What does this fold into?
Amino acid sequence: MSDVKLLFDESLTAIDQIDRKILSILHHNGRSSYTDIAKEVGLSRVGVQARINALVENGTIEKFTMVVNPSKLGIEVSAFFNVEVEPKYLMEVAERLAEERSVTSLYHMTGPSKLHMHGLFVNNQEMETFLQQVVYALPGIMSVDCQILIKRYKSRMGMKL
It folds into this structure.
């Protein structure tokens, strides 16, 4: 256990307060320029660029992305699923569901629902087709529980900084 704590502590010291401020700025606006970030953190543009490159190389920053409002693209159904799977089929089912375009996130969870999944669908018919042709057709599916999102109050990508 002390080895785990030591590794964790070392990873925390590898990222200083300036790195944390840079991460916070990028988390708020991933399009911030090196120059704008440099002004906020008190470094040169080249210094900020070097720090961001290091954060990417060491895996702290996994990727840069954008967040799209699905309803602006005509995607009206946001649904959360708890999928109970026989243990011997868990990996096969997870790998298959992860390939699906409609699936936005998929997690292996504790408790009776082995997989927790989020999906986006144009309408209820598309979701029903997904359930019938994809989910229910998979081996080892024991039960599927679905909740449809009514209203989003908060949605955060990534972790709290």
Notes: The chain has six helices and four strands. Strands lie at 77-85, 103-108, 115-121, 141-148. The first helix runs from residue 2 to 13. The chain has a mean pLDDT of 89.
